[in-house]
Amino acid sequence: MSTNHRSDGFHTEENDGETSVPPRRRGWILAALMMTMALAAMDNTIVSTAIPQIVGDLGGFSLFNWIFSIYLLLQTVTIPLYGKLADMYGRKPVLNIGIIIFLTGSAACAFSWNMYSLIVFRGVQALGAGAIIATVNTLAGDIYDVQERAKIQGWLSSVWGISAIAGPALGGAFAEYVTWHWIFLINLPIGIISLLLLYFFLHENQVPVRHKIQYKGALLILGSTGLLMFGLLQGGEAWDWLSAKSIILFVLSVVLIIIAFRIEAKSEEPVMPVWIWKNRVLLGANLTMIGMGATMMAPSMYLPVYAQSVTGVGAIAAGFILASTSLTWPLSSALSGRLYLRIGFRNTALVGIIIVILGAGLFSFLPFPGPAWMLVATQLLLGAGFGFISTPMIVGVQSVVGWNRRGVVTGANMFSRYFGQTLGTAIFAAIFNAVLIKSLHQAPSGLLGQLPAANQVIETLQSKDTAAGVQAFLKQTFHAATHEVYTGLLITAVITLIIILFTPSRFTVTEADPAEEIK
Fold first, then answer.
1. For residue 248, how far is the Cα from the chain centroid?
2. Which of 33, 187, 397, 437 has the fewest CB atoms within 10 Å around its CB?
3. Residues 172-207: tens digit of each pLDDT
4. What is the pTM of this model?
5. Three-state DSSP class for residue 235
6. DSSP letter string, 374-405
7. Which H or E run contains 298?
């Protein structure tokens, strides 16, 4: 690897050469990567608006949350494994296999005969999505140098933004005018075109090497993180946080994590190498992504419902309010390249987290019932902040290692983000539910007999038959609960700010084996 040294201590790398791509082919490969990323990005959003039709056809209303939970769970826990496999066997075969698995799961989902089969096939989709998430970002790091990666991450971020808008619209259109089966079948032509583009334009110079992966350690990592995420997803929903089930799951996951890392420390080919967590640069970047992932979930979970139930806008307008982050996220992601080349990766992320704090703080000044423009303003600020955080962190970690370690560090970084989303889901749901239940118990005596249970508040708010006094009280309650959620977001962002401050300001490139250099 050749390295350019700057006077400010910021080091940049040139393309390692293992993935040789002439400039004229890069556009086609980027198109393939964006289309492939769209498969994973749009999947949950396109499914969400078709849930009523799916449940009406297949039944199993009590199970429909698992359509999303199984996808998030299996996608997240497999990302580190695919990152390691991409380092061992090359990006192209891992990405191709991931796309094929995803398309197989999509076709199977379209022909599901009940809710149980749909959940299983969604799990198959998720196994492919894990490979897509890990490998697309790794490939982007391979074929573009550090100066270009911010612009490319901006393009990839735009896929998520477009998906946030197009997904619900397509899902609703298919469900209403055709059939919900097409929300899965639409993936097939997109995936096939991606495979063809990768076949013709991406050529890796991968030297065949015999590898020996420690499957016991890999399975323990998958199992331990899976149990931990399962506990976070189910705690406070299926059972209480302090119940025996929660305690057993969390204790067992911690024990398995300890055993897994002891095995991985002795392994020749560890899936999650110990040096990732010993190096302050990589540790800081991954913890930052956990914090960012957590903060992302507060608006995703509650802002659309708040906009409809309290502010009074329609469902489509609420969707656009949530999706307004997609206007500033890709823009700030693309602009972050100029900034991190001047002030470094860490300091660019500091700019981002400060913008996030401003966005979360703005919500604190939101009056009841809250003008829609203020909701849009908070989302625009959050989107800008996320772009300035995510791109420097992923480009930064890719720049401290060579080609043969880039998949591992990219996988760990992406895993951290999705694990943060799971953590944020649990934290903010606990905050919201606690405030909601407390408010319902402290309601005026004249309303006590008319108030719904906590899990029926949204349905009651949106019902035209709800008494005016009850609706006014529930709006105030929902407003207060959402404010507390954003206070939790603000605290999470401040913790993330502290993490970034403790991350080294210089991200340096090592020409030696990073496993030896970082120990």
1. 27
2. 437
3. 788 778 888 898 999 999 999 999 999 998 887 766
4. 0.85
5. strand
6. HHHHHHHHHHHHHHHHHHHHHHHHHTTS-HHH
7. helix 280-306
